[in-house]
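Notes for week 9. Today we move from apo structures to complexes. The key idea is that a small molecule is not decoration. When we ask for a structure prediction with pyridoxal-5'-phosphate present, the ligand SMILES becomes part of the input, just like the chain. The input block below holds both the sequence and the ligand string. Read it once before you look at the output, and try to guess where the molecule might sit.
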Amino acid sequence: MPMSADFQRRLFPILRTIAGHFGTPFHIYDETGIRDTGQRLIQAFGGVPGFREFFAVKALPNPRILAVLRDIGFGFDCSSIPELALARQVGAASDDILFTSNNTSAAEFAAAADGGCILNLDDLSLVPKVPQMPELICFRYNPGAERTGNAIIGRPEEAKFGVSRSQIVDAYRAAQARGARRFGLHTMIVSNELNAGNLIQTAHLLLALAEVISAETGITFEFINLGGGLGIPYRLDDTPLELPALASVITGAFHRFADRNGYLPRLFLESGRYITGPHGVLVTRVINHKQTYRRFIGVDASMSALMRPGMYGAYHHITVLDKPEGGLLADVVGSLCENNDKFAIQRPLPATEEGDLLIIHDTGAHGHAMGFNYNGRLRPQELLLRADGRVERIRRAETLDDYFATLRFEPDCLIPPD
Ligand SMILES: *Cc1c(COP(=O)(O)O)cnc(C)c1O
């Protein structure tokens, strides 16, 4: 069950007009859907006082979208200096920002301190590198062999992220020794997880670990951050998460923790995909047909607009506007000189004509954001279907001038000493 029937009902009748006005290709996001999903998340976890979602900025780093999310009360999870700047640009204050970087540089620590945020440290070795230890500190935990992870994030044992089990207590002790007084605990083990049991297991794992760390150090936890990773149904036969049921089990686990320990930590999430993923589509026009050993439909977008199929073999459902579902098998391809520049491989699709509009579903997270310029391919524009029914351009397409921007600089040529 990819893009919602509501989004289709709002978008499809006006899609030709939008394509005519703005040109193709473009990603278009549905403000109403994003707001609804955000509100449903807040409601679902309402049973844990102080619950907060910190939207993972990397999923859809557009200030217009971040402003919508801030409006419904979300904070932001950032992991780079530009992401920090984006969050601050939409008015996020220090306690609205989690900084979950890894392999953190001195410049990143400086940018995090300048303006403030909640620091989420990825390693024990970073404790002495924090220029000024804040009062509130969090560590990202890596459970290692205790958990199996999944395809996007990798197996925890092999993943570069987080503090290991044997280091985690020392990490809090080291932060305490440098003056930290308030603490959070974080992990991010899975991504695009549709199995509620695996998400619940993460909550149990962190709550149990919090008890162990407390017993050894005497500290208590102000918040437990379960990370992102809530999955969305990309395929027609994927079963969506039942959010209220999932939230009620996790809420129960938090309250049992409170019964045992005499206090209730806040629950933080940093979902990206779940919030915006289904509420965006990539709209691209058919420009060529080719029939060799198989059938190819050539469109005016390339993987510079959407990397997930090429990078992970990810499935994105495709609809041809005003044509039935299904048909003969075809590959839907862009123009990059890379054979993985395909939005779909051997997909049943109806007969198409040049000029037809293809809707590639579920590009609202990790879509435009992952784009790149390899092969001189420029990233497309982003549009917003606003709650008031207007369609607003929220990022222009890249131009040749953008491509050449980094080739304009002050000449500099070092003559090394001999
Ligand atoms: C990417 C990422 C997220 C968001 O992941 P989703 O799968 O989009 O929910 C959250 N936290 C961290 C640290 C991440 O790297």
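The chain has two domains: 31-275, 277-397.
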